Amino acid sequence: MRRDQHIHYLLHLADDSLILGHRNSEWTGHGPILEQDIALSNISLDLIGQARNLYQYAARLVNRERGMKEKVLPGVKVSGEVSEDTLAYFRDSRDYKNCLLVEQPNGDWGKTVLRQFLFSAFQFLLYDRLKQRDDQQVAAIAEKSIKEVAYHLRWSSEWVIRLGDGTAESHRRMRHALEDLWLFTGELFVAAPYEQELLAEGYGADLSSCRLPWEDTILETLARAGLFPPEDGTSNGSAHTGSAIMTRSRAGGKEGQHTEHLGYLLAEMQFLQRAYPGCEW
Amino acid sequence: MGGKMYLWLQTHCLAMNDSLSIQEPEKGFQDRIDREIRIEPRDWMPDAYRRMLIRQISQHAHSEIVGMLPEGNWITRAPSLRRKVTLIAKVQDEAGHGLYLYAAAETLGISRDEMIDQLHTGKAKYSSIFNYPTLTWADIGVIGWLVDGAAIMNQVPLCRSSYGPYSRAMVRICKEESFHQRQGFEILLTLSRGSAAQKRMCQDAINRWWWPSIMMFGPSDDASPHTGQSMRWKIKRFTNDELRQRFVNVCAEQVKILGMTLPDPDLVWNEQTGQYDFGPIDWEEFRNVINGNGPCNRERMAARVRAHEEGAWVREAATAHELRLQNKRISSVKENSEKS
Ligand SMILES: [Fe+2]
Ligand SMILES: [Fe+2]
């Protein structure tokens, strides 16, 4: 296994969690119900916690091998060892590897809980596979995280049902949110080159095996919410050919081709580290 | 004993008890307070006691909630992942404090909705400290050190407050506040050992927050109308000035560890009193901020009202969904009973 592909993969997993956790934390203090403000902040804490575990592991691998720093952090001057914060605060958007779904702006509460639901349903299946794989570190992180993810999935699907079923207005908002976010779900199942390479050697997870169970989870909850995936979405038929969902879906995040939103997010998140480089905080 | 006799005794004695308490309820109440017996929600209490508690507890709850805003500002800009999770957890704790306190106030016969409405219409106040802006990362450290610090100084005695639900809420809250204070001080300690820019950031934040922090103890005793009654009822245990003095004594020592200074030229150790003397407080500024003219009053209220209004459709949908579920349950129970 090529070490740099391995590290890219860890960064991809970590970035997914960090960016979604960051997005959710934008709600802290502004939630619609105090109890739910607390619940979503908790999910943020879980996700950023996962990201930290993965970054720390990636940082150890980077530090272990000469020349790896330059490959993972091209053009970044790092004095001393690479840390979780070097990886989070000094990569630009072209080097971030999260899926487009998680960087999408919060929108209203409905869009936020739907984004969480679409992602958690996927993350649950992914971590379930990772916890059985050969990379012991990743397996341990997945094992620990999957309990959290199960809760995120339950919490967010309850909200999707509540809002889909609630009032005419909440139903309308959920339909719009679904239209906005659906385009970004296809990418979850398309393996990036580093994922393909790892998979060939028995590491990582086979994303195509996640797809059908993901659709089952999604369709079941949406049905209870009285919602349907947007047209030519992902009925089982189209999933097999892959064509319908592919033509309309947007991808590229895993290889650093992001939507415009990520740049602003990173500008905000990274500003202190970049304005005062080389400081302890 | 025959049933009739028992009934007679019961009603007779109850009546006796009643007449006793009607004659001197206030005396019995004060007596319990003096003997340090906690007042519980079902106990008789004077209206004024109830009102004073509702005012104080709801104000306190609102302060926790509004206080989430200035610190929440920095969650997305926290300079490391460790600081980010600590800050999210802290702001989340404050939401929890708000919850405990709203629940304590509800035992006195007011609903959370009513209290929130009073906040949004400006009828209820919140701590004026949260009307100051958080301009740099150092402000997050200073808020932990000074604002949570002042809150602890105020709140530790409230753990012995005469009203049971309030005192119990305060015990839980105080534990978490002391965490916050340590974390805040640690942020400042890191800055104070850092680069010149970080040191400057640290001193500047202390300069901006010091005076507003010592105003958190409220007006001086001779200008504090409620203090006397509140102390007799043992809601409060110490006067504003007593607590403020303690706080100054503690901070004047702690700031030395940071190698920073407090922005008060009159601050000096007084051998005779064994306390720190300090300069005059600008009560004009205090009144101004309380009356809505602080640097961020409008922003804070606007943010709270916006969150509430934008959340209205969510709350309505949740209620509608819950109702529909209940109706389904009822009709399925009916169907089942008709079948059988
Ligand atoms: Fe608090
Ligand atoms: Fe606090």
Commentary on this structure:
The complex is a heterodimer of chains A (281) and B (340). By secondary structure, chain A is an all-alpha fold. Chain A has helices at residues 3-25, 34-64, 68-72, 84-89, 100-103, 109-130, 136-165, 168-182, 193-200, 208-224, 236-241, 243-248, 261-275. Chain A has a single domain (3-275), classed as Ferritin (Up-down Bundle), CATH 1.20.1260. Chain A is built from 13 helices and no strands. In chain A, helix 1 runs antiparallel to helix 2. Chain A is globular and about 60 Å long. Chain B is mostly helical and 340 residues long. Chain B is 70% helix and 2% strand. Chain B contains 13 helices and two strands; from the N terminus they run H-H-H-H-H-H-H-H-H-H-E-E-H-H-H. Chain B has helices at 3-23, 25-34, 47-72, 81-106, 112-120, 137-155, 164-192, 196-215, 227-232, 240-258, 283-293, 297-310, 312-339; strands spanning 268-270, 275-277. In chain B, a hairpin with a 4-residue loop joins strand 1 (268-270) and strand 2 (275-277). Chain B is globular, with a radius of gyration of 25 Å. The two termini of chain B are 46 Å apart. The relative contact order of chain B is 0.09. The model of chain B is unreliable at 1-22 (pLDDT under 50). At the A-B interface, helix 1, helix 2, helix 4, helix 7 and helix 8 of A face helix 3, helix 4, helix 7, helix 12 and helix 13 of B. One fe (ii) ion binds at residues 94, 148, 177, 180 of chain B.
Write the layout of secondary structure elements.
The complex is a heterodimer of chains A (281) and B (340).
Chain A: H1 3-25, H2 34-64, H3 68-72, H4 84-89, H5 100-103, H6 109-130, H7 136-165, H8 168-182, H9 193-200, H10 208-224, H11 236-241, H12 243-248, H13 261-275
Helix pairs in contact in A: 1-2, 1-9, 2-7, 6-7, 6-8, 6-10, 7-8, 7-10
Chain B: H1 3-23, H2 25-34, H3 47-72, H4 81-106, H5 112-120, H6 137-155, H7 164-192, H8 196-215, H9 227-232, H10 240-258, E1 268-270, E2 275-277, H11 283-293, H12 297-310, H13 312-339
Antiparallel strand pairs in B: 1-2
Helix pairs in contact in B: 3-4, 4-7, 6-7, 6-8, 6-10
Bound molecules: fe (ii) ion (2 copies).
One fe (ii) ion (FE2) is lined by residues 64, 94, 97, 173, 177 of chain B.
